[in-house]
Write a structure and sequence with these properties.
Oligomer: single chain
Number of strands: 15
Largest sheet: 7 strands, parallel
CATH class of the largest domain: Alpha Beta
Distance between the termini: 25 Å
Length: 409
């Protein structure tokens, strides 16, 4: 591996002069990579898996995110820095993030060997700095995201930044083949795909629906589960709630946060919900895994109203798969292809109440053991280890390109 061979040529770092009578300690310096995100680091499973992979390749990750009003203390295994920003939304948030990343880099650059940027809102300061290799991981189709739809000026600004930054990238990573192909066509870049899949592991053992009892959810009826750290507009929570009155004998549980989660939470006590709508705030990964394995059907009802959603491949699809949970999904390109090809559930063209009701009933009518067989087989082909080598490839490409560029300057 190129960078590990090169690491052996790095100078040895010495501690300060020891006190009299103490022996000098000599410590070999490992390669350090800053991993930048615009969230508060708490719930980002993709970043966690990426850091584990980087560590396995001989790197020491240094995480940089932001401090949020509701952030819990960081308990991860890596050094982490949370930036204090002037705002948490809108243009002031993005400007503050760029400024604070610049400041952080000025202070820490001498102790770094590379920067791993997650999403477009962290990329500019690393590229502008120009003296460290930059690896870019696009978790979504950023310039086609919901927040930029119908906002041509804002979108134009992000596209301009993207075009400028991408000129410096020898390659990049993204989350599925549809987004990768779009970037290849637009920029002629080498784009590697690392899907947001769980690590291969033994399924959680649960006793029926009992895991839901800890959150006040009765276990007398089949449970349809929708999960998502950010249930923003058009992510399907509204459609799931609208379908519930017609799905007699079903409980709907939403686990997450976001504007549609908040709206659903406000309807919990509405008479037409008959006490069958339950909203649980977003949970740590392991706690969520238990609920996923305890549900009866999973829901992924994204609308194709934005390019980012149309081409999305949400991690909940793979979470359902690894929990052996059959699913009902909308006909988004990447999601529908996997569900249909591997027989993992039902696909609806549009998430109307009648379509969702019919699909859920169809899933529940089939014996769970039959679904489990197909889901188990699919999980052997869809796990983090399948795409993990692409991280090593991206590192190799970016480090070699940076070294070649530094030699020609």
């Amino acid at each position: 591996m190129f960078w590990l061979d090169d690491a052996r040529r790095l100078p040895t770092v010495h501690k300060a002069n020891p006190a009299k009578g103490q022996r000098r300690r000599v410590v070999s310096r490992t390669r350090r990579i800053a991993v930048w995100v615009s969230n508060d680091l708490t719930f980002d499973q993709r970043v966690k898996k990426t850091c584990q992979t980087l560590e396995g390749l001989g790197w020491t990750p240094v995480l940089v995110g932001r401090e949020m009003p509701n952030s819990v203390p960081w308990e991860g295994p890596w050094e982490a820095h949370r930036l204090k920003l002037a705002a948490h939304a809108g243009p002031r948030f993005y400007l503050s993030l760029q400024r604070e990343l610049h400041r952080w880099l000025r202070t820490h650059a001498s102790r770094l060997d590379a920067i791993w940027c997650n999403d477009l809102d962290t990329l500019a300061p690393a590229v502008w700095h120009g003296r460290l290799p930059v690896i870019y991981d696009s978790h979504e189709y950023f310039t086609e995201a919901a927040g930029l739809t119908g906002k041509p000026l804002k979108r134009a600004l992000w596209l301009r930044l993207e075009r400028w930054a991408f000129k410096s990238l020898p390659c990049m990573i993204t989350v599925n083949e549809s987004i990768a192909e779009s970037y290849r066509r637009t920029y002629g870049l080498e784009v590697l795909v690392v899907r947001n899949m769980p690590r291969r592991q033994t399924p959680v053992e649960v006793e029926g629906r009992s895991a839901f009892e800890a959150y006040g959810v009765p276990t007398d009826l089949p449970i349809a589960l929708m999960q998502g750290a950010y249930m923003d507009r058009d992510r399907g929570a509204v459609e799931a709630v609208a379908a519930l009155p017609g799905m007699k004998g079903i409980r709907l549980v939403l686990v997450g946060a976001g504007v549609e989660w908040e709206e659903a939470h406000a309807q919990v006590s509405e008479p037409e919900m008959e006490g069958r709508l339950h909203c649980i705030p977003k949970l740590p990964f392991e706690a969520l895994r238990k609920l996923t394995a305890s549900a009866d059907v999973g829901l992924s009802l994204d609308k194709g109203s934005h390019g980012n959603y149309e081409m999305s491949l949400p991690n909940k699809l793979f979470d359902f798969m690894h929990a052996r949970l059959p699913m009902v999904v909308t006909a988004r390109k990447e999601v529908a292809a996997i569900v249909r090809e591997h027989g993992l559930g039902e696909v609806v063209e549009h998430a109307t109440p009648s379509a969702v009701k019919a699909a859920v009933e169809k899933v529940l009518h089939r014996p769970r053991a039959e679904w489990a067989e197909a889901l188990s087989k699919a999980s052997e082909s869809f796990h983090w280890g399948v795409d993990e080598p692409q991280i090593e490839r991206a590192l190799d490409t970016c480090l070699k390109a940076h070294l070649a560029g530094s030699h020609t300057q």
